[in-house]
Design a protein that fits this description.
375 residues, mainly alpha, single chain, 2 domains, Cyclin A, domain 1
């Protein structure tokens, strides 16, 4: 009974949060919305977003990765204390860049799997091959970064609103991080294949959350709770029917190497403390709302998040251990990091779910941290 009461409170708050967000945005654009649904934002109202220069598409023919068994995501990454790394003294940008670039090629490389070799859950015998497979598969599970051109009734702004709402719902239900990343990937892959009307966009979002929860969670949200957070705009039957449509459109291919899976491995290679872990998760969660960042692979976004977080706490931007296990050098990741920061600075002030989440003490209040963007 206690658990059910908590879920009712969470779903009620989430339902009101989405309705308030929709109403707020509708007031700005003078356009109506279905109760509990996605605001009907016309493309003419967001011409500034549509006219923004398209981010350069990076080269994706980079060597396969080294990484970690997904079971290792439960290992507390913040317990990895910095080893053999000296903080960067930033006298000027040129010295910072040159010293960091030199360090990544000349410093000591650590074996991050050695201490876990006796732990069968870490699967250290297979971890390198698994992440090599992840890097090969991320090319296939990533969506075409201009798929929204095929959608006549929705746009990137509406996608951002949907993801912002899902971040809050995900937090209220206390779901694991992988569920959120899989949810957004399912939405993008479905929208890439099927044209969706405005009233059905929230239905796609909540159904994707149901699918991802069934895949990742021990106790997924109940169907009636998902109906409730949508303000009963959709019935049980509509959600189940959409679930079948999504699965058929995706040919039942649900498994993906998410950006969060890469992040866990890279944080281990970065010898990340709690501050870096929280900052990296904050930055990476913020990339989910950006349609423009679909130009980049999940592994690149994860690496960029680690790089930005390390600079924020005064560490070298990149390290020899990261160079070995991520198989990206600092020069590969800097353009991605700049794009992530550019998207963050231009994000709508009305979509604040990620900032609200990471403003709490549970996540170290890192949303208030000044992000270093001097590169």
């Amino acid at each position: 009974m206690f658990r059910e009461n908590n879920k009712r409170t969470a779903t009620g708050n989430s339902r009101r949060a989405f309705r308030d967000l929709s109403n707020s945005i509708n007031e700005n654009v003078n356009d109506g919305a279905k109760p509990g649904g996605i605001p009907l934002v016309k493309k003419s109202h967001v011409s500034g977003l549509n006219q923004r220069p398209v981010l350069p598409i990076p080269q994706r023919s980079i060597a396969p990765p080294r990484g970690q068994n997904p079971t290792q995501r439960h290992i507390s990454a913040h317990q990895q204390q910095p080893q053999r790394e000296q903080p960067v003294v930033r006298s000027n940008s040129f010295q910072t860049a040159s010293s960091s670039s030199s360090y990544q090629h000349s410093g000591q490389v650590d074996d991050i799997d050695e201490r876990d070799s006796d732990d069968p859950l870490c699967a250290t015998e297979y971890v390198v091959e698994m992440y090599r497979h992840f890097r090969e598969k991320e090319m296939k599970t990533s969506v075409r970064p201009i798929y929204m051109e095929n959608q006549s009734h929705i746009n990137e702004r509406m996608r951002s609103i949907l993801v912002d709402w899902l971040v809050e719902v995900h937090l209220k239900f206390k779901l694991v991080p992988e569920t959120l990343y899989l949810t957004v990937n399912i939405i993008d892959r479905y929208l890439e294949r099927v044209e969706v009307s405005r009233p059905k966009l929230q239905l796609v979002g909540v159904t994707a959350l149901l699918l991802a929860s069934k895949y990742e969670e021990i106790y997924p949200p109940e169907l009636r709770d998902l109906v409730y957070i949508c303000d009963r705009a959709y019935s049980n039957e509509q959600i189940l029917e959409m679930e079948e449509r999504i699965l058929k459109a995706l040919e039942y291919q649900i498994t993906i190497p998410s950006a969060h899976a890469f992040l866990v491995r890279y944080l281990k290679a970065a010898h990340a403390d709690r501050k870096i872990v929280q900052l990296s998760c904050f930055i990476l969660d913020g990339t989910l709302q950006s349609y423009n960042l679909l130009h980049y692979l999940p592994s690149q976004l994860a690496a960029a998040s680690v790089l930005i977080a390390r600079r924020c706490v005064g560490r070298n931007s990149w390290s020899p251990t990261l160079l070995k296990y991520a198989e990206y050098c600092e020069e590969d990741i800097l353009p991605v990091a700049r794009a992530v920061l550019a998207e963050k600075s231009s994000a709508s002030q009305e979509l604040r779910a990620v900032n609200k989440k990471y403003s709490s003490s549970r996540y170290g209040g890192v949303a208030d941290t000044t992000i270093d963007c001097d590169f």
